[in-house]
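INFO  loader      accepted 1 record
INFO  loader      residues=345
INFO  predictor   begin
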Amino acid sequence: MEPPKEPHSLSLKVLRLSRPSLPLQYPLPPQAKSAQSIDPRAALCFPSGLDLDGDFSLSPTVSVGFLDANSPANGHLQLTLPPAFGSAYVGETFSCTLCVNNELPHGGDRTVTSVNIIAEMQTPSQVTIPLELHPDNSDATKAGLQAGATMQTVVRFDLREEGNHVLAISLSYSQNTISKLENSASSGRVRTFRKLYQFIARPCLSVRTKASDLQPLETEDQDSQKVTLSRYALEAQLENLTDGLITLEDLTFDASPPFESSSLNWDVPQPTGESSEPPTLACREVTQVAFFIREERRQRVTEATPRKELTKDGRTVLGILTIRWRSAMGDPGVLSTGWLTSKRR
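INFO  predictor   done
INFO  writer      dumping C-alpha cells
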C-alpha cells in the first residue's frame, strides 16, 4: 500500500471578479389595514424608515455594506454580489483572482520559499495561452510566504471563442524543514500541484449581415477615362443573447481598400446638430444597423492603386464590422466579425 500523501503547505483559491448588480425588490400585495398587517416597506431590498436592529435584512443576496435607519443614504438601492459563478460571454474579459494561502502553523519547523504560479487558458480550439499575473509577486516568488500569510494576483483573458474553456493553475514551491539546533534548513523539497477550472463562454450578440449591391457610380478620372465605382449597402441585425441589458457603445466598419464606409446609425448628426442616444437592448431584443460602402474616387489609377480583393467564388471583400457595448453595470465588451463579402456574382 502506498503511504498517505502529505497535505500541501499551500492552498489555492480561485474567485471570479465580477461587478455587483442591483438587487430585486418584490412588492407585497395590498392588505387591509389592521394591527397585524405588514408594512409595505418591508418588501424593499433593504427596509427604510423602520426601527430595526442591525441584524434585520430581507435581501436574498449578499449586501455590500449595511445602512442603518438613520443613514442619509437610507432608501437607496444597495449593490449585491453575484451568488454564483454567473455567465461568461464572448467579447467580454474574463477576470479572476488567485489567492495562495500558507496553511502552516506559526512557530513550526517548516517554511515555504520560491513560490511560483503559472496560469494558462485552454480555448475551445485546443490552443493553450499563457496568462500574465497582475501583479507578478516577484518578492513572494523569491522570499516565499510566512506562516499564515496570503498572496493574491489577478489574471485576465479576452473571450473570443464560444464553447468550453479550461483555466489551468499550476503552483510550485519549496518546502524546507528548519533544524532548531542549527537554526538552518536541514532538508527541503520542491512540491507542486495543478488545478483545473472549467467554464463555458456563451455568445453575447447574434450578428446577421446582408450586403446588397447598389447602382454603380460612373465617373471620369483625371485622364477623362470612364471609371465605374461599386457601391454597397451593408445591413446588420444585432440580437442581445444575454440575460440582462446591454447598451451599444460604438459601431465601426473597417472597410477593405479600395472601399470606404459611412455610418447610417445613431452616431450620424441630425439636422439639429445633435446625435441620437445609443440603443439599449433587453434580453432577446433586436436592432438594425446599416453602413453605406463605396469605392473610393481616385484621380488616377496606377499599378500601386489597391484592387478589389475577391474570394474564390467571386465575392468582393468589403471589410470587418466591430461592435462595442456595455452591460447594465458597465462591463465592456467587443466583438468583431470575419471578413464580410458581397453577394456572389
